[in-house]
Amino acid sequence: MKFRPTTRTFLVVGLLTALFVAGVASYYASSHPDGLSAVAESTGFVDRGKASATSDGPLAGYETNGIADDRLSGGVAGIAGALLVLVVGGGLFRLLRRRSPSDDPGEA
Amino acid sequence: MHVPDGFFDVPTSVATGVVAAAGVSVALRRARHELDDRTAPMAGLVATFVFAGQMMNFPVGAGTSGHLLGGALAAVLAGPWTAVLAITVVLSVQALLMADGGITALGTNVTLMALVGVAVGWLIFKVLRSVLPKRLALVAPAAAVGALVSVPAAAAVFTLLFSVGGTAPIDTGTVLVAMLGWHTVIGIGEAVITGLVVAGVVAVRPDLCYGARPVLRERPLEVRAGMAP
Questions:
Q1: pTM higher than the cut 0.90
Q2: Residues of A with CB below 8 A from B53's CB?
Q3: Binary contact (A84, B101; C-beta < 8 A)
């Protein structure tokens, strides 16, 4: 018998996985500069980068203002960001979706 | 590959902003055909997963890291137009909330990661799917190859833009070699993550994977023990 979770189970497990990655596992991510930053450093244009206008925000740099503990600070920021993406993305996709045929006024 | 403010001059930032806005507005219309009551929640999950995945920088050697871009992954799981929107939402939250990627560079970042990343990843996946045998087991490898190519493709477009509107006069060939070098290695990480995640979804719920649905419909019917009434 093949394992086939319900859609709800699938979505819940998927969401918990994403929150775990953003909130817990991300602490162990590499803190080295990414490919673009490394290239900017090695080829000499990294100093052209400017601090973002949002760099004083409460979650800037994936750190939560006012939380001293690195692990917690990053975890809270990661989970907050992931949940915001879920709300904005999920809300947008819900708005855009085609309704079930019963209440679909039909393609214009 | 989040471009900060200041790497590009104003005309280039405006131009990529226009390209990004045009791409997103087309995606807003076309994504309707990919989204229904069942796939819309999946698409929201995919966007959330890409945000999380982008936080997991993996080392690629010599003090350098890379992270998932997620264009190919989102396209194969949720459909290409939905993927453009999903990556755009991720990049917008990152720029506005996390100061990851510049505000004036948002158009550039959407162009590179949401448009180029998704388009290249999806088109390669689609070509592979059409030439490979119609088997579910080949969906994840095809997605991985799309992911692999999508990262250096985005890096190449970055270099092209930088040669036109970069704020430092660096030799284009030098930038291109460095960008393609690192991003080919990062593309391998992108391919591994994309392949594993798509394989996981296809193993348990292939019907929730947009890119697997045609294969699901076209594959020869199998007679399985225990299925007979």
A1: yes
A2: 21
A3: no
